């Protein structure tokens, strides 16, 4: 007896058809490929980045190297790494590509699709970083920026409160834009903020008195105090009013560029600037690396140290001793 089966078209997380190399490897490989993104990677941004990197690699393997999926060997992966470097990609970017490829093949091995991981033996380009490259504002420049914002408009109240949130809580921009109104709350006599961190984790931080002042002003003017389950940071409408949609990272990036230009602080600042600025100001005022790590929700103190630019001031003071 023959059973009729409905053909299922499997799509990647970006709603693109499966790479030809994976589709040609059969239904088991195809299913495992989709599961890698849907079941194994929960963070949307990581999923999209890995999807781009892996699809680019598999297209190259098929079109340039003429390889089938189960024929990919370490030398092929190593050749692709060299290609990326020759194409001008930075070493950290190449390492990210390799990490995505290695993780995919690990998933294929544990799922019984492949016997070995061809990327496990391939070493990425050596890259050691002891100091972060994120532009940092001095405490005086940060204060100037916050004070320069016109708070006679609702957009100004929103932007001032959002920048203060990132500075005073060392928060990632993705953790901030994910907040709802209820994530600013009172517990006892103190007010707290709940940040939506990577991996679905919640990180709770006491609200700095300036954060509280600016948030209260924004919520009162926007009439959001009672709309607990709605987005805290909202995009503007065409009439410059507050809309219903949540701000995204690109919205915040554009806002930062605009506010820094208005304050004559140049165009170098980005979303990470305010995380680094807050950590640096904290360390300059005698804060400890251990506590800075806890506030920033970093897994490693090495990561926190990359945001600490107190040594910049020390170096400048020493250079000025050259009295020629």
Chain-wise SSE layout:
Layout: H1 20-24, H2 27-40, H3 44-63, H4 74-86, H5 91-110, H6 139-148, H7 154-169, H8 173-177, E1 184-187, E2 190-196, E3 202-206, H9 209-222, E4 234-236, E5 242-246, H10 249-262, H11 271-284, H12 289-296, H13 301-307, H14 310-319
Antiparallel strand pairs: 1-2, 2-3, 4-5
Helix pairs in contact: 3-5, 4-5, 7-9, 7-11, 12-13
Overview of the molecule:
It is a single chain. With 324 residues, the chain is mainly α. 52% of the residues lie in helices and 7% in strands. It has 14 helices and 5 strands. The chain has helices at 20-24, 27-40, 44-63, 74-86, 91-110, 139-148, 154-169, 173-177, 209-222, 249-262, 271-284, 289-296, 301-307, 310-319, and strands spanning 184-187, 190-196, 202-206, 234-236, 242-246. Strands 1-2-3 form a 3-stranded antiparallel beta sheet. Strand 4 and strand 5 (242-246) form a beta hairpin. Helix 4 runs antiparallel to helix 5 (91-110) and helix 7 packs across helix 11 (271-284). The longest helix is centred in the N-terminal third of the chain and has 20 residues, at 44-63. The radius of gyration is 24 Å and the shape is globular. The protein starts with 19 loop residues before the first helix and ends in a 5-residue tail after the last helix. Residues 1-11 have low confidence and may be disordered.
